[in-house]
Amino acid sequence: MRRTGPTNYILRKTIRELRKAAKANRVNIWRYVAELLEKPARRRIVVNVYKINKYTVDGDVVVVPGKVLGIGKLDHKVTIAAISFSKNAVEKIMSVGGRAIHVLELVKENPTGSRVKVII
User: Fold this and answer.
1) String of DSSP letters for 68-91
2) Cβ atoms of residues 74 and 52 within 8 Å
3) Cβ pair 66, 82 in contact under 8 A
């Protein structure tokens, strides 16, 4: 029988931890992010920095269930949690004083998911 879903061990572990956090804290945001991460590789979410800049304000916390790329510019501080970042995206986020962290780090900091935006 063939395995379905992601074969990347880190991604599978992340999905498992998100589902545990959703159940333990009775919040649906982490379950929703886990569902988005389970999609096939050809449908994975890729978000550019300009889109994050467009839909956020200073001090927002954002979850990207996929990869953040560095096209565009960011002009305010934002905490961005994602599975992966391009080198250029991290440089742009750090240059304005923002944070680029992994999704599981955000779950540990904010287990209830309050005031977190999901950008897809």
Assistant:
1) EE--S---S--EEEEEEE-HHHHH
2) yes
3) yes
97: left (phi over 0), alpha (psi -120 to 50) or beta: left
The pairing of beta strand 116-118 with beta strand 61-69: parallel
Global pTM?
0.92
Parallel, antiparallel, or unpaired: how do β-strands 116-118 and 99-102 relate?
unpaired
pLDDT digits (tens, 9 = 90+) for 1-41: 676 777 889 999 999 999 999 999 999 999 999 999 999 88
DSSP secondary structure string for all residues of 10-36: HHHHHHHHHHHHHHHHT-SHHHHHHHH
In Å, how far are 19, 71, 73, 87, 112 from 33, measured between CA atoms? Answer: 9, 23, 25, 23, 13
Single-letter code of the amino acid located at 20: K
Measure the CA–CA gap between 28 and 43, rounded to whole angstroms.
Answer: 21
